[in-house]
Structure formats: C-alpha cells, structure tokens
Amino acid sequence: MAQAKKPARESAVVLKERASFTALLAKNPNYFGNLEDTEWKPAKKVVGDTAFEQATCVGFNPQSNFLEATIALKRATGYGGDLCQAGSTEYVRFFLDYGSGWEDAGLAAVRVHDIPNQRDCEGRPDKPLIYVVSLRIDPYRKCCRDEVLPRVRAILSWQWAPPAGAANASWNPVWGNVLECAIQIAPRPWSIFCLLEDLGAEIGTKLEVPKLFEEVQLDPIPIPDPPPIELAELAELYAAGKTMKASKAATAKLAVEPHRFGLISLQPLLAQGGFKQELSLSIAESFKAIGVDLAQILDDLESTNANVAYEELECLGLDEDVPERLVATFRVKKPTGYSGDLCRAGSQEYVAFWADWDDTCDWTYLGTVAVNVHDIATIPAEGLCYSAILPVDLTYERRSCKEPKIGRVRAVLSWAVPPSTTDPDKLEYWGDRLDAHVQIEPGDVIPPGDVLAAIRNLGGIAVEDIDTVVSGLTVPTAIFAHFPGSPADGWGLGRPCPFGGNVQVEGNFFLGFWYRVKIRKSTDPPLSFTTLGSSFLLERAWLPGYDLQTSVGGFFKYADPFLYFTRILAQWPSGDDGLWEVQLDISTGPSEPSIIASSPWYKLLIDNTGPVGPPALFPTMDIGIAAGGDCMDFDEGVTISGDFVAEDAHFGGWSLSTEPDTFTTPSNPPQPIPFLAGTTPAPGPAGHGWTLNTASPVTMKPCGYVVELDVVDRSIVNSYPGSHNRGEIQVGLCLRAT
C-alpha cells in the first residue's frame, strides 16, 4: 500500500512546483539546477524531466520546408488549468548543424491544458495526447549531385522558452528533453550553375559560369522531371552497389531485393482488374532479362507485408496552428532501395491519414500525401527523419472549452504503392501503421454544412483574448494566435494592448461562399461603414509562392482551406487612432442581397501614434544633460548627469545607450537614477535622472558621443510580436583630453 501511494505524494509535490514554477525561478534562476556556469545554487535538481511531456520525434518535410517536433503529453494535470483557462506553453527551439556547428533556426510553441483522463471507444487510455509544433525554414541547398543532410536538434521546454542563439544549443530544460535526427534538404532547382556543375563532373573539369550569366546562374530552368529508372538499370544498380562508393564489405548493405526494386514495374500486373496474358508475358520477359524468375519474385512479394526494414512510422500528431494539420514522422533507414539518387526521380513514401474525430470506432479517410525519397549514399547510421503533412479542416469538429474533445487519428505508411483509401486496416508491402490520440482545439460549435459569421483573430490575437465589446484592448492573458509563446504584452506584464499598422483579419474558410469585411469608427452612424476590399496575398501550403485574393465589389470568394497555410480574410491598413469596429458578412454571392449571415461588430482600439519628442506641444520623450548643458565639452573620466522623459498613452518600455560603442571606441551605458526597470515610465515634465560614468567599467576615449533614449509603446503593429510604434531622441556631448 505504501509503495502504491508514494507516486501520488511525489506527483503532488511536483504539481506544486510546476504551479509555482515562475515564482521559484524569479527568486533563484537556477532553482532546478538546469543552468551551468552560474553562481546560483540549485534548491532541487530537476533537469530533463519527461514525466509530464516529452518530445518523441523531430522531422522535416523537404517539399514545404517545415521542421516538425512531436510532443507527447502524458498526464491529466500539471499544465496550468483546463481549456477554459490560460493553460501553459510547451516551447521547442530548433537548431541546425550543416557541419560547421549549431545554428539557431527559431522557436515554436503550443498552448496546453489540463484534460481529464478518458478511455476511447476501444477502452484504451487517451494519454498520451500528441501535439506537433512546426517551424518553416529557408534551408541551405546544393545541386542534386551533393547531398545536404544537416542534423536537427529540438529542445522541448515547458514554460521556459529555450534561450536564443547558437551558443544555447546545449541548454538543458527543467521539464522537457532534447532530440536530434538528420534530415534531407531538397536540392535547389535545376539552373545554369547546376548544369555546368553536372557537365564538369562528367568530364572531370570544373566549369566556370560565363560572366554574361552570373546574375541568372541560380534562376530555375524549366525542364521535365527525370523519368523513373528502368528495371534493368535498377538491377545493375542494386545487385552489387556499383554506383555507390563502397567497399566489398559494404556491398551487402547496398544490395536491394528484386521484389523491392521491381515493385514499381510489377504494379501494372498487380493492379489489373482481370488477367491479361500479353501484359503478364511482357513483365515476365523484363524480369527474365535481369536473371529473375517472375514466379519467384511474386512469391517473395506475397510473403512481404508491413516490412519496416527500409522505412518506418515513428510519430503521429496534430499541429493546432491554423490551419490545423496532421503530421506523421517516419524514418528512412537504408542508403539504397529508393529508386535512384537526388538527380533521379527517386520514389514516393505514401502516408494515408484517417480520423475518428467523434470516437465512434469508425475511421474516416482524410487523404494521402507523398514524400519524395531517394538513395542517399551518405545516410547516417540512424537514418533520416521525414515528415508527411496533411492540412485538415476542423471547423465542424469543435466543442466549447467545457467539453474537451479527443479524437483518434491513424497514419498508414506505404512505399511506392499508395495505401488503401477504403480499408484503414490494410497494410501494403513496405511500411506500417500508427494510431494516436489528439486534442481538438475548442471553438464555435457549427453544425456540419452551416456557416458561422465569426472573426477568429484580429491583429494576430484571438478575439476571445480581446475586449471586443468595450475597450478594444487585449486582455491580460492574451497571446499571439500563431505564436503561442509570445504574449500580447511582449514584456510579459499582462498590460492591455491596442493595435496599429496593418491589422490582419482572420477567420474560417467556407468553400463555395463569399464574404465581406467592414470597418467603421465607433462614433460613426450605425449604418455607415467602409469595406476592406483591397487585394492581398495568401501563402500556398505546398507549392512555392502566393495567390492573389481580389474582391468583386468588396466581396471575396472563400479560398480552399486545404491549399493555404493561412486564414486571412482581409488586410486593414489602420490609420486614425481611436476605437474602431469590424464586422464580417457571409454571402452566397458578391452582392448585398446575397448576405446570409453577419457577425457582431468587434471593437478594436487603434493607436498608431508613437512616442514624440520636442518640439511637440506635449512631448512624451525627451533627454537632456543637467551639469554643463547639452552638446557641451566634458573632461574625460568625469560622471555626467542628466534627466529623461519616457511615457506614452500605451507605454511599453524604454532603453538608454551611448554611441559610438565599438571595439576601437568603447563606451558605457547610462544608468537611470534611481534604478528603474525599462518598463517603468519616466513621466514628464521632470522625468527621471541618469548618469554616465565615463571612466568605468571602461575608460571612454576623448571623442564626440551621443546619449540615446529609445521609447516604444505596446501597440501591436502589423499583427506581429515585437512590432511597436517607437521613437528615439539623442543628446550630444564631447569628451576632451585632460
């Protein structure tokens, strides 16, 4: 009995420490002992604890350039509250190593919550719940003759964003873990540069790009896709690994079974509706020509089912970013057996996705995606990690935050042969199957086939995180919808924030319908409005580039939700400050009589006025030198004092600096008097004092300097974290030699 209760007591202690996580770290940044080279002594050692969450896979999709990390949440509690509360954040920072050291690729995150334990329709526990976070990168590429196989490192950390910078690639999380895997970058498109590189390799001489073509040497050249390798060439390629740089001892590893490399050639025979003697004889002759008996190869193929020697599914989860997408991560294990290198067509790894969103034990086919794979001569011993990605529209699957909805999902992997679209249990020759439980983000409950006139995000913030009824400001717990790790108040103080710049309006896409977005000042007459009808771009999900959305009389036609990685409805280039209102109309056509639904008017406070200095009548920033006055000479080594004003209607923060501050001319930063945090306003007219010690910690040289005050407000400008209205003002001085 005592042993049975011990984990419960330990769990309660851990939950308490997680509940007090931020407070404990505020008192001692190394409370849990995860920091190295610090004077802070740990109070309790907790490093890399995976009892609550664990990164289980990291992968890459070469077609869309998405890095993916899969996260398993193992418990029902310990995540900061239920779905109607703020919850907590799982952060993942990605690093890439192309061979010369780690590079910081960026941060991704997902908001998570306490969700009670349940059992699904088959009686299985619904934990772990599987989440995915994504980061789109612009990778380094080479021509197809050169394989680019960087390593990816993903650091998962609960409630503590792994610090930025390549130097932090070895940072240790308190709760979370670190994963690595090698990935394969798609070659750059065929170009003049690649053509000359390829020709030079053929003749053994490096060819230079003529000066006339230097500016366009990397521009893509439209050429036909390389054809599949013929059966006879595959037999020669794989029988002894002739084209691979391998010793005799490695030849066996490079050899590929005939029923593997011959599968594509067998497809016409295996897929026929009825027996065709001519086709059978033709295929038999082609295999006889390479010394293989057709009957034997068919026997070998018949005994091959769900073989994972070449590729294997390892993770499956749901990325909750809009649009949501299912992500299956699989590992390619061998250097050969994929129908050619990167300069050839290669082969396809197919992944079919299925879902049982309502937990009825009835699978629904969602779609199949293909990931192009190739023979990779320099594949690492642990293989290469790929991700297959399928956007899903969950508009009609949501429930309120009081009713957590857990769905079952399935991925079926099959090499060269698309999986069944009618039988979720059927497995093909090479590949396997994987099931997972995922949580569907709460939202408006919409009956299937209906439309709902509702705006989802304004200025990058979900409407439920904005007081859209009275003030038009964000609420204290507001976060960016597409950047769950970024609070609306970028300083983390929970202050209400207005909006400015280009305000993105986002919402659900209802294919087949039209919509219109209207704005007005809150003081305008009730029936007046302006239509946001300007054209804008939608980023494609799978093909490079964007598509233009153009209105017809102010109405836009809804785009296909499966084709785009965005749900932008309109772009609002906000102008005049003040309280504004936004409304969405949905219609069956591009005209007012066709309108079938309208949303409420959502209030939004616009503030495009940044901090201003003199000669404004009421400056909100200013800086001056007290002793000696502005732009005067001072002896080197003295301490200079002054005062500054930093405020704003929606004040964000301020900073003081001295310029120049270079290797040859170093300087010291001014210090506020009394000490103030950069988020504490210095209101006018007196403001606060500052001092500049020109002798310590470095000795400033005789030179001309400026002391600069930078002030930013907390307006969310251009719908993006860290973008604000800002201003700067300087005061000059000269240090003279004594």
Task: Describe the model.
By secondary structure, the chain is mostly beta strands. The chain has four domains: 1-45, no CATH class; 48-187 and 309-440, no CATH class; 489-606, Immunoglobulin-like (Sandwich); 621-736, Immunoglobulin-like, CATH 2.60.40. The strands form eleven sheets. Strands 21, 22, 25, 27, 28 and 29 form a six-stranded antiparallel β-sheet that branches. It has a four-stranded antiparallel β-sheet with strand order 4-3-6-7, with no helix packed on it. A four-stranded antiparallel β-sheet has the order 11-10-13-14, with no helix packed on it.
First-last Cα distance: 81 Å
Assembly annotation: single chain
Alpha-carbon Rg, integer? 31 Å
| Integer count of domains | 4
- The dominant shape is globular
Average pLDDT for all residues: 91
The largest sheet is: 6 strands, antiparallel
Task: Please tally the helical runs, counting DSSP H or I stretches of 4 or more residues.
Answer: 9
Q: What is this entry, summarized?
A:
With 738 residues, the protein is mostly beta strands. It has 9 helices and 38 strands. It folds into 4 domains: 1-45, no CATH class; 48-187 and 309-440, no CATH class; 489-606, Sandwich (Immunoglobulin-like); 621-736, Immunoglobulin-like.
